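User: I'm putting together notes for a lab meeting next week and I want to include a structural view of one of the chains we've been expressing. I don't have a solved structure, so I'd like a prediction I can at least talk through. The sequence is below, exactly as it appears in our construct file.
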Amino acid sequence: MLILSRKKGEAIQIGDGIQIQIVSIQGDQVKIGIEAPKNVEIYRQEIYAQIQEENKRAVATTSLIDLIKKSQTK
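Assistant: Thanks for the context. Below is the predicted structure for the 74-residue chain, given as structure tokens.
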């Protein structure tokens, strides 16, 4: 993990197309702005984890339905 210190108004550049800027700092809360190409999906970590969990459930449900259908056709 790369750890960098930044002050309000400073930014971090990731590759050619992503820039993360420190917009404000209030107490222990930091607001950031992210500029990225439209095709780059950006999520808060907790939302991304929920999406991944829902995807796993959907795959498991689909697999179960497929197994049931296969057993009924035999």
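A couple of points you could mention at the meeting. The chain has two domains: 1-41, 43-74. Residues 1-41 form one domain.

User: Perfect, that's what I needed.
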